[in-house]
Design a protein that fits this description.
The protein has 122 residues and is an alpha/beta fold. It contains three helices and six strands; from the N terminus they run E-H-E-E-E-H-E-E-H. The chain has one domain: Rossmann fold (3-Layer(aba) Sandwich), CATH 3.40.50. The model has no long low-confidence stretch (mean pLDDT 84). It holds the Pfam family Tubulin.
Amino acid sequence: MREIVHLQIGQCGNQIGSKFWEVISEEHGINATGIYEGDSNIQLERVNVYFNEAHGGKYVPRALLVDLEPGTMDSVRGSRIGALFRPDNFIHVLPHRGQILQCSNKARKEKQLSCLPKSKQG
């Protein structure tokens, strides 16, 4: 089985990523709230490459949305597909000394990175 973690970084990454999720959701018959409404079992064959299946048959994108400013992520949250994402999919990083970035909440960062295989976390 192949699983892809989709990283959307910055304004451009989040805007392109949002369009990606609109298209991939439509291809797999998943509505804007993550519920399968397709008409063919073929649509569900490889859905687990991009989505995790949550409680109640809801499909959640395997994605992390990252930005320095909350505005872009607020735009995604308020969009037609905003309900697809879990709240912890959104990472707002704060500029730190020397322009080195850090996640604003260490426990939250560890939880978000836990979806990656340990060998890939570095």
